[in-house]
User: Which sequence fits this backbone?
């Protein structure tokens, strides 16, 4: 760990967005624009069964009737939904058995991303479902997982191979009409991951999926569905990057998690979509619906997110604590710099008895950015003895940025105990000088202090992700002080 | 090693240092005493490059380099160390990580190889013994929740880790119990070499029983108004500063 920390500091000399390259893989794309024919065409190209087409069409019709949400603390230019491509697939349809068959250009892209696709890295025990634009290219380790009955594949494949499971759970947590972007996603989602952990199985490895937006003008609409049956456990990692572009790109994903009795799902995200340049040009609009349903008693869902990217982030990973004695957790670091805007937080919906939720949110604002935490804790009438603890901290670097905290409480049961703590601090000049005096320059000092500040959240991440996250934080803050 | 000439410094438009002259040679220990508010900590801050203070006049040469021209971190990397009068807490940053970063930065600056993880840990252990600091403290975040005395000990531990050429100890003895005082003094003595030097800022002769200074200076109202051998400290302890003030007026 220590030597890795060291490497971090060395790598930090790299100033610009590291992942801003664009690979020339031949694309097979639909023309710009969205209408019912496009929805049908997506479903047709993916060889989907009838029920999926129905699902998509219903969502599309719903979406037409909906309006884009009001942006509370976000300033956003209107999005032209007819000026986007809704489906783009690499032309050489990869139905691959071994890594050698992967398009070298694609491999190079993965290598640049540092995706552990090569054999040695596979040995380190990470199963990867890599997604470039819309089609899942290669899923590793599937056989090992299959022995345990774990299904880990692209959602398209799941729709074809396990239609009953998909039919049962898809849209059960985030209904197609849930919100504007969820409806859009439900209509046009192109790919994503599917995870199924059967009864009593502890998934033998971390499951990991990397998303990356590659083609110009393609919105990315992934769909992820994770189902954990009774007494099962899985830890799922999601990492994202996107190439640098002048125009804004839309990313509207939906993630659904279902846990049955005593099951536990840990979902970790390290997100570094392209945030736009120093003047606020370009960057990803990240409008994501992530929701977990603790359906079975004593089950647990834990969200951990490190958000450093995107021009605009709008995201509230939530837990619906439906079963009795269920637990929901949300650990978040959201860093904004330059002109980035983030409005993120969580919703904890207590429905069952003796349900508990924990929220730890660490916001970091630098440059001219705006960082808002928005959290809802809702305790329903029959949710006796619900407990919630929320800790929302904001750290400011400089005085042109903003941090805002909006805790919402809806308590309908008098036995509930809800606690909220919030702090706002600035990195002290005296702290920086103290580091300087020991030979640490200001940029590294800020990195150290920030990483110290977010430790509680970073500690929730699996080791290799924690290192990645620390690196990202440091890179994202370059040039923000001094 | 250190040559200060006619140093003037201000804060908020107020002149605090009003013409300091001081020469420190390798191997020497200098004590600086003086009443509260006379500018002792300010001198330490100015030497280490704290930007809150503005140098308006004068020069400082450190091992042949123009000290005032260097950034605070480069001054540290050149071997200047300050044991802070009020050490700063940095929540969440472990002592180990902090020290490792600091030491490696200093080594890189000097073109030396950085220590491997195991060599670094060995050094930590070794230096902990030298200053007899609790292992527990170095496993915690930098100064977070440390008692006053623990913070001071931690400063000396850091000094032992970084092995500076010139160390300024700003009231490191204040707030230490008798045992801790002896331990800190022992540490300083053990680190003493013919090629390094120490400035002790203190109010108490007591410390100077353990660390024998070559020179004692009295800083008063932003100037060094008296310099002598270690007997001066005894005289101050007995008589306070009034007689010096009178000398100045008279
Ligand atoms: N940040 C500051 N802003 C305004 N005045 C300051 C500041 N720092 C120091 N001073 C003033 O400068 C003068 C010298 O302070 P300094 O801390 O150097 O004294 P000192 O000799 O170290 O005193 P002590 O023995 O109490 O530690 C004091 O009058 C103090 O109030
Ligand atoms: Mg002082």
Assistant:
């Amino acid at each position: 760990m220590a030597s890795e920390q060291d490497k971090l500091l060395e790598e930090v000399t790299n100033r610009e967005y590291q992942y801003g390259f664009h690979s020339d893989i031949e694309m097979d794309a639909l023309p710009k624009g969205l209408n019912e024919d496009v929805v049908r065409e997506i479903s047709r190209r993916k060889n989907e069964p009838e029920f999926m087409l129905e699902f998509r069409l219903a969502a599309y019709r719903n979406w037409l009737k909906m309006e884009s949400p009001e942006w509370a603390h976000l300033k956003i230019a209107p999005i032209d939904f007819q000026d986007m491509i809704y489906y783009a697939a690499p032309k050489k349809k990869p139905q691959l058995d071994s890594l050698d068959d992967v398009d070298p250009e694609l491999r190079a892209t993965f290598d640049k991303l540092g995706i552990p696709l090569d054999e040695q890295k596979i040995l380190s025990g990470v199963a990867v479902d890599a997604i470039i634009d819309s089609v899942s290219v290669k899923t590793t380790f599937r056989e090992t997982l299959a022995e345990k009955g774990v299904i880990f594949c692209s959602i398209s494949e799941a729709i074809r191979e396990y239609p009953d499971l998909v039919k049962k759970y898809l849209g059960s947590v985030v209904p197609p009409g849930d919100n504007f972007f969820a409806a859009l996603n439900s209509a046009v989602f192109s790919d994503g991951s599917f995870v199924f952990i059967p009864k009593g199985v502890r998934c033998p490895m971390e499951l990991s999926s990397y998303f990356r937006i590659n083609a110009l003008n393609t919105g990315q609409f992934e769909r992820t569905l994770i189902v954990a049956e009774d007494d099962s456990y899985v830890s799922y990692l999601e990492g994202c990057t996107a190439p640098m572009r002048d125009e804004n790109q839309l990313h509207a994903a939906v993630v659904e998690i279902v846990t049955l009795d005593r099951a536990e799902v840990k979902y970790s995200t390290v997100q570094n979509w392209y945030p736009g340049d120093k003047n606020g040009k370009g960057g990803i609009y990240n409008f994501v619906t992530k929701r977990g349903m603790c359906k079975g008693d004593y089950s647990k869902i834990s969200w951990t997110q490190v958000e450093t990217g995107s021009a605009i982030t709008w995201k509230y990973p939530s837990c619906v604590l439906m079963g009795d004695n269920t637990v929901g957790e949300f650990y978040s670091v959201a860093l904004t710099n330059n002109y980035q805007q983030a409005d993120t937080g969580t919703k904890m919906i207590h429905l069952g008895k003796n349900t508990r939720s924990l929220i730890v949110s660490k916001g970091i604002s630098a440059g001219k950015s705006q960082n808002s935490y928005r959290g809802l804790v809702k305790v329903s009438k029959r949710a006796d003895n619900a407990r919630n603890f929320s800790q929302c901290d904001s750290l400011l670097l400089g005085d042109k940025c903003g941090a805002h905290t909006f805790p919402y409480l809806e308590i309908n049961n008098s036995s509930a105990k809800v606690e909220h703590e919030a702090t706002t601090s600035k990195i002290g000049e005296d702290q920086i000088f103290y580091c300087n005096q020991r030979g640490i320059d200001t940029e590294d000092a800020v990195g150290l202090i920030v990483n110290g500040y977010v430790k509680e959240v970073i500690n929730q991440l699996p080791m290799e992700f924690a290192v990645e996250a620390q690196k990202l934080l440091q890179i994202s803050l370059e040039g923000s002080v001094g | 090693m250190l040559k200060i000439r006619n140093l003037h410094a201000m804060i908020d438009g107020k002149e605090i240092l009003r013409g300091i002259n001081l020469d420190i040679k390798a191997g020497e220990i200098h004590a600086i005493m003086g009443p509260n508010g006379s500018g002792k900590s300010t001198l330490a801050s100015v030497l280490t490059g704290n930007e809150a203070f503005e140098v308006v006049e004068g020069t400082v040469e450190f091992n042949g380099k123009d000290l005032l021209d260097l950034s605070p971190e480069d001054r540290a990397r050149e071997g200047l160390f300050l044991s802070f009068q009020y050490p700063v807490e940095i929540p969440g940053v472990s002592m180990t990580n902090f020290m490792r970063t600091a030491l490696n930065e200093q080594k890189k600056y000097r073109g030396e190889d950085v220590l491997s993880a195991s060599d670094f840990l060995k050094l930590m252990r070794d230096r902990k013994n030298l200053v007899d600091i609790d292992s527990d403290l170095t496993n915690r975040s930098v100064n977070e929740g440390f008692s006053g005395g623990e913070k001071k000990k931690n400063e000396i531990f850091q000094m032992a880790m970084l092995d500076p050429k010139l160390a300024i100890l700003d009231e490191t003895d204040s707030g230490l119990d008798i045992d801790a005082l002896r331990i800190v003094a022992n540490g300083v003595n053990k680190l003493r070499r013919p090629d390094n030097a120490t400035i002790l800022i203190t109010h108490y002769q007591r410390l100077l029983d353990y660390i024998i200074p070559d020179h004692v200076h009295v800083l008063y109202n932003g100037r060094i108004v008296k310099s002598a051998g270690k007997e001066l400290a005894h005289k101050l302890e007995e008589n306070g500063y009034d007689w010096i003030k009178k000398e100045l007026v008279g």
About this structure: The pocket of adenosine-5'-triphosphate (ligand 1) is lined by residues B 11-12, 16, 34, 36-42, 52, 85 (CB under 6 Å). Chain B has one domain: 2-249. Chain B touches chain A through 41 residues (CB under 8 Å).
